[in-house]
Design brief:
Blueprint: H1 17-28, E1 32-34, E2 36-38, E3 64-70, E4 95-97, E5 104-107, E6 110-115, E7 121-126, H2 140-153, H3 156-161, E8 165-170, E9 175-180, H4 188-193, H5 200-203, E10 222-228, E11 232-237, E12 257-263, H6 266-274, E13 280-282, H7 286-291, H8 296-299, E14 303-309, E15 316-321, H9 331-337, H10 343-350, E16 356-357, H11 375-382, H12 391-394, H13 409-421, E17 424-427, E18 430-433, E19 441-446, H14 452-464, E20 468-473, H15 476-484, E21 490-495, H16 504-509, H17 511-514, H18 528-538, H19 543-558, E22 563-565, E23 567-568, E24 571-577, E25 580-581, E26 597-598, H20 600-611
Parallel strand pairs: 3-12, 19-20, 19-21
Antiparallel strand pairs: 1-6, 2-5, 4-5, 6-7, 7-9, 8-9, 10-11, 11-12, 13-24, 14-24, 15-21, 15-22, 16-23, 17-18, 25-26
Helix pairs in contact: 9-13, 11-19, 18-19
């Protein structure tokens, strides 16, 4: 489960009516009312818990944190694909996750949740004191309105993500019920628990499907206090926030002010941090982490650099092919081009050896497919023998590997062999299709200029194969628009890997999403086998079955050669001015910046040193 829950920073046919009524009637007796719900197993925290283990419930409130953002923004509406949204007032969900469990949600707007054993429906009871920032109560009508507006006028992924919801109805003035179709899907109650609840009375008189610079009405701990379009946004704590004393919020949301300043590119943003205009930054570049922080404030301790473990699956990042382009429809071609990417040399020369090569879409977790399939995973895959690559059953997938010297002649020879088998040959120094004579050329679209440094050697190696590849860097707004329109040949994408994968996999790899503008099936995969594997994963009745089905999907994706894997870093690289403290116990599956706080003593000491 991953989408669409967002911070400020997707079917099956319905059951016949008689079957649905009978199933619900049988399940009613088995349903129970709880404070939390897990996809598999039981919640870690009981109904009387006071706070999560990874927070400091006594953390002081106050102070300001200043972040940097790259690019610009022209809207506060993050629910549509139009515009480039900036951070906005807090929009809350019915339930909220804990970040030391794989997939468990606890009540936020909802005080309780009820579902039968077969998860065919779920009800939520809205807290009586839940309020919008204008003081009006959050109601069942707001929940129903939110579902309807998001699935009809929101970004296309909402409709796909919630496609198994066949009915949303008011049970009484505080209870709302979601009824599901499509067979077993233990994730569905958690999915709708992540529904972002919007104020009906606010949006009914406004155009939901258009960008807006009017900060929307929210219900959470922060709201927009001031902004300058495209340049900065300042959020301030809501002093009478209704949920400040909830156990799920204890020790969190500790800043009085959260400010985002926008910079034209990452280099300028880094310099702003060094100058003290930004308080904290997450570093994505290994090279910069090793070399760019050699400045006085770092040397004398005013700036702290910290590696914080990240125990979430690392996901997959790589150069993805757009299968909508004829060049990349052939699996052998996709396999061949990967031999032109020299990860070992890139890691050693450009990243000081800090990176780990990614080979799985669930890298670093029990969900990753390794070795040769066996047991339950093999049973799943056997049904598709002859429809999936034979290597799935005989060979563990590994991306091409070099000795790191920069001499990749053996890899290029392998690439040429594969390309010849796919009907390509070198003529007059150019790789051309032996039937059409068309030469191979494509563009690598980049949304971050920093990626050019690691992409250029790849381009040069492609040239040695007779392939003309050009890099093009664009600003963040243009990049998002091009992705939404699938208007690219090759680009770099990171696909997140949820701990409990489910409906969101349809959005990444499902056939229905391939032609849906704004979906995250950027590759353009349309494979009935993958669709079936996703359905099996979604219907997994327990954790063991989920693991086997996820590994099967992972393995088929690996051998599809839909991208050229890059790298992962199993920790967060955080640099910050030394005015913050954070709990000694960090959340397993999140950086947890919401649990940090401004330490008054550190802030005073820092201010004194900067003055002197």
């Amino acid at each position: 489960m991953l989408l669409p829950r967002r911070s400020i920073l997707i079917g099956s046919a319905a059951l016949p009516l008689t079957g649905l009524l009978h199933r619900s009637a049988r399940a009613e007796g088995a349903a129970k009312v709880t404070h939390a719900i897990a996809i598999h197993g039981e919640p870690k925290y009981g109904p009387d818990f006071t706070h999560f283990d990874y927070v400091n419930p006594q953390a002081p409130k106050g102070g300001t944190i200043r972040y940097s953002a790259v690019g610009s923004f022209d809207s506060f509406n993050a629910f549509i694909i139009k515009g480039d949204p900036g951070p906005s007032s807090s929009i809350e969900t019915l339930m909220t996750p804990s970040f030391d469990e794989a997939a468990t949600d606890y009540g936020l707007i909802a005080e309780s949740v009820e579902a039968p054993d077969d998860r065919s429906w779920v009800t939520f009871v809205i807290r009586q004191d839940a309020r919008w920032h204008d003081g009006k109560p959050i109601t069942v009508d707001d929940v129903i309105f939110s579902f309807d507006i998001l699935t009809t006028k929101g970004a296309p992924n909402f409709k796909l993500y919630y496609q198994n919801v066949v009915k949303v109805e008011a049970v009484d003035e505080r209870k709302v019920k979601f009824t599901f179709s499509g067979g077993s899907n233990r994730e569905l109650p958690v999915i709708v628990g992540g529904l972002q609840v919007l104020p009906k009375h606010y949006w009914e008189g406004r155009k939901f499907d258009e960008p807006t610079l009017e900060p929307p009405l929210g219900s959470g701990p922060y709201k927009v206090a001031a902004f300058e379009a495209g340049r900065w946004v300042e959020l301030k704590r809501v002093p009478d926030y209704w949920g400040k004393d909830l156990p799920v919020n204890a020790g969190q949301n500790n800043w009085d002010v959260v400010r985002y300043d926008y910079y034209r590119d990452p280099t300028v943003a880094l310099e702003a941090f060094k100058a003290g205009n930004v308080d904290l930054r997450l570093e994505s570049s290994s090279r910069q982490w090793a070399t760019a922080y050699d400045f006085p404030a770092r040397k004398d301790g005013r700036v702290i650099m910290e590696n914080i473990p990240d125990q979430t699956p690392q996901g997959m990042q790589g150069f993805i092919y757009n299968l909508r382009r004829e060049t990349f429809k052939d699996r052998k071609v996709r396999e061949a081009l990967a031999y032109a990417y020299d990860f070992e040399w890139t890691n050693k020369t450009l990243s000081d050896g800090q990176l780990t090569r990614t080979r799985s879409y669930w890298q670093g977790s029990e969900l990753a497919a390794t070795g040769i399939p066996n047991g339950a995973e093999l049973e799943i895959l056997e049904k598709y023998r002859g429809r999936i690559p034979d290597e799935v059953f005989t060979t563990e997938y590994q991306p091409p590997k070099t000795d790191g010297s920069g001499n990749i002649r053996p890899s290029l020879r392998k690439a040429i062999e594969l390309l010849k088998g796919a009907g390509w040959e070198i003529k007059n120094g150019k790789l051309a299709n032996s039937q059409t004579g068309k030469v191979m050329q494509f563009e690598i679209l980049l949304g971050n200029p920093q990626a050019e440094r690691a992409t250029q050697p790849f381009v040069q190696n492609l040239e040695r194969l007779g392939i003309t590849a050009q890099m093009r860097s664009v600003d963040s707004t243009q990049y998002v628009n091009l992705l939404n329109d699938f208007d690219f040949d090759v680009t770099i994408i990171r696909f997140p890997a949820p701990l409990s994968p489910g409906n969101e996999q349809r959005e990444y790899w499902g056939s229905a999403a391939a032609d849906q503008r704004g979906s995250q099936n950027y590759v353009g995969i349309k494979d009935p086998v993958i669709d079936e594997l996703i359905d099996l994963l979604i219907a997994a009745p327990d954790r063991e079955s989920l693991i086997a089905n996820t590994r099967a999907l992972d393995r088929v994706l690996q051998w599809g050669f839909y991208l050229i894997p890059e790298f992962n870093v199993p920790f967060f690289r955080v640099a910050y001015w030394n005015k913050f403290s954070h709990p000694e116990t960090t959340p397993k599956y999140s950086l947890g910046l919401d649990t940090w706080w401004v330490d008054p003593d550190k802030e005073a000491a820092l201010r004194g040193r900067q003055t002197n």
